[in-house]
Amino acid sequence: MNETSHQSDPLRRARLRWRARRGLLENDLIFERFFYRYEDSLSDNDVAALTLLFELGDNDLLDLLLGRKEPEGDLARREVIRLVDTLRSV
């Protein structure tokens, strides 16, 4: 059975936006701008990378987004690094 892609399923897109809501306003603002610019063009690989980022605590995520830290361990994947670079640019 093929799983529906992120782009073709409005419910999956809504869930992704919901998961992007964070406890720190700074993170929320970054993700709000990111989704405004890129939501319609997100690939399933982008969604997978975002899902990994959403597993981080708010402060660790903010450190990544502000460039205080670089992705390491499980996050040191090409698609995550590319996504973090995009998030930093918004």
Automatic annotation (TrEMBL):
<dbReference type="GO" id="GO:0006105">
    <property type="term" value="P:succinate metabolic process"/>
</dbReference>
<dbReference type="InterPro" id="IPR005631">
    <property type="entry name" value="SDH"/>
</dbReference>
<keyword id="KW-0143">Chaperone</keyword>
<comment type="similarity">
    <text>Belongs to the SdhE FAD assembly factor family.</text>
</comment>
<dbReference type="GO" id="GO:0005737">
    <property type="term" value="C:cytoplasm"/>
</dbReference>
<dbReference type="Pfam" id="PF03937">
    <property type="entry name" value="Sdh5"/>
</dbReference>
<dbReference type="InterPro" id="IPR036714">
    <property type="entry name" value="SDH_sf"/>
</dbReference>
<keyword id="KW-0963">Cytoplasm</keyword>
<dbReference type="InterPro" id="IPR050531">
    <property type="entry name" value="SdhE_FAD_assembly_factor"/>
</dbReference>
<protein>
    <recommendedName>
        <fullName>FAD assembly factor SdhE</fullName>
    </recommendedName>
</protein>
